[in-house]
Amino acid sequence: MSEPIRRILIAGAGLGGLCAALCLNRQGFEVEVLERAPELAEVGAGIQISANSARVIAGLGLLDEMRRRGFEPEAAEIRDGLTGFTCYRTPLRGVHAARYGFPYIQIHRADFHDMLHEACLAAGITVSTDAPVTAYESLRDGVTVTLASGRVVAGDVLVGADGIHSVVRAQMLGKEQPRFTGQVAWRGTVPADRLPPGLVPATAGVWVGPGRHFVHYYLRGGRLVNFVAVEERKAWQTESWTEPGDVNELRAAFAGWHDVVTGILARVEHTFLWGLFGRDRLPCWTEGRVTLLGDACHPMLPFMAQGASMAIEDAHVLAHCLAAGRAVPEQALVRYQAVRIERATRVQQQAVANARLFHVRNRAAQILRLGAIWAGTHAIPNLATSRFDWLYGHDVTKD
Ligand SMILES: Cc1cc2nc3c(=O)[nH]c(=O)nc-3n(C[C@H](O)[C@H](O)[C@H](O)COP(=O)(O)OP(=O)(O)OC[C@H]3O[C@@H](n4cnc5c(N)ncnc54)[C@H](O)[C@@H]3O)c2cc1C
């Protein structure tokens, strides 16, 4: 056995990296987060946090603050984008928390990120910006990382929380570009007071249509409406992974849709377009004292709204495995991977299944599919409610 580990390096100060820093700090580790960007910033879009990850946020003592900054939707709905027919509705406000112990919250990514960063600073965690990790070296009793500046930073363990294009993953498993999934997403926000009163219901609304779907929900106590509009595309032509979106092209893609969708789009001033990329299940996430977390190891389509939630669950499990195995960190990291990989893969697969459900191209087939969902959820309402118990009801603190 080697000396108990003390100092953890984290590459990437995204939602996953900052959550991991807080979870590790609570277990008594000294943490340094190394972030590539010159300053911390998040995209102008929302994120949905369900009970399974809200449980971890609550454990960090941040749930009340998250509630204060976010919005709790009345319900989640799936509706036909053309007719408005509601084929599925499940209540959320009060009900999600009653069933799973923790609420369903929608929050602006920047607000969530700021909240985590403030908590890191209050806990004395070092978050270094302008610190791109370019490589790591495994030593017998530790690891060093080299930054683009040439500076070398030493620690006992390295966590690659550096997103879908992870440098840590590339060194561990070889350089391989993520796969374009054939989908693009426009994202943006509209101030609620710019929309006709009563137009947008206080729900997490998913509107489906041939080859595309549209999602909206409120942020910041109802002052902002977030939207995500997804369309199938043959290819992603540009080199960048995001680009400024063309608002007229976005409106044209959803022309003729229900008034709620076109009403929101009529008020959009700026939008960004994301190519959606994925990876197959990785053979492993861990090598010696180096491991991966979040999108670095399990990027997923956003159609379960679970990418960040999975990173947050990873953060909790990682910290607990390392705390229980301070003297045998290599084994602790293997255990972390073993606990997490099946669940993360299942959520990745469910997100792909939702893409098929939302985007049925043939209109007649889509009407039949939506009708079947409506009939199923009315015939066996309990089945509709319990279908995702495995996801939202999962207690990661017992893993
Ligand atoms: C359209 C869309 C909607 C989504 N909606 C939801 C949702 O509702 N709910 C949900 O849970 N998830 C959602 N997701 C997924 C979620 O955004 C991601 O899963 C989550 O942000 C991943 O967090 P992360 O910290 O692993 O990676 P990232 O957020 O990508 O953070 C990685 C960080 O590492 C830094 N970095 C990169 N390379 C280096 C380097 N070499 N050195 C140092 N730092 C580096 C980056 O600058 C960044 O700060 C959505 C995604 C999309 C595209």
Task: Tell me what the structure shows.
The chain is of the alpha/beta class and 399 residues long. Helices cover 36% and strands 26% of the residues. The protein has 13 helices and 19 strands. It has helices at residues 15-26, 51-59, 63-69, 95-100, 109-122, 167-173, 247-253, 259-266, 307-324, 329-358, 363-379, 381-386, 389-392; strands at residues 7-11, 30-34, 46-49, 75-80, 86-91, 105-108, 126-128, 133-139, 142-147, 152-155, 157-160, 179-191, 204-209, 212-219, 224-232, 242-244, 272-278, 286-287, 290-292. It has an 8-stranded mixed beta sheet with strand order 5-4-13-14-15-12-17-16. Strands 7-2-1-11-19-18 form a 6-stranded mixed beta sheet, sandwiched between helices. Strands 8-9-10 form a 3-stranded antiparallel beta sheet, with helices on one face. Helix 1 runs parallel beside helix 5 (109-122) and helix 9 (307-324) packs antiparallel against helix 10. It binds flavin-adenine dinucleotide.
Describe this protein with a few key phrases:
19 strands, 6-stranded mixed beta sheet, single chain, binds flavin-adenine dinucleotide, 8-stranded mixed beta sheet, alpha/beta
Please give a quick description of this structure:
By secondary structure, the protein is of the alpha/beta class. The protein is built from 13 helices and 19 strands. The site of flavin-adenine dinucleotide has 33 residues, from helix 1, strand 3, strand 12 and helix 9.
| Distinct ligand kinds | flavin-adenine dinucleotide
The biggest beta sheet reads:
8 strands, mixed
Question: From the alpha-carbon coordinates, what is the Rg to the nearest angstrom?
Answer: 21 Å
- List the uncertain runs: none
Instruction: Compute the number of strand runs.
Output: 19
Give the count of helical stretches.
13
The termini sit apart by 25 Å
Q: What is the helix content?
A: 25-40%
Mean of pLDDT: 94
By secondary-structure content and strand pairing, the structural class works out as alpha/beta
Shape summary? globular
* Binned strand content: 25-35%
Q: Could you give the order of strands across the largest sheet?
A: 5-4-13-14-15-12-17-16
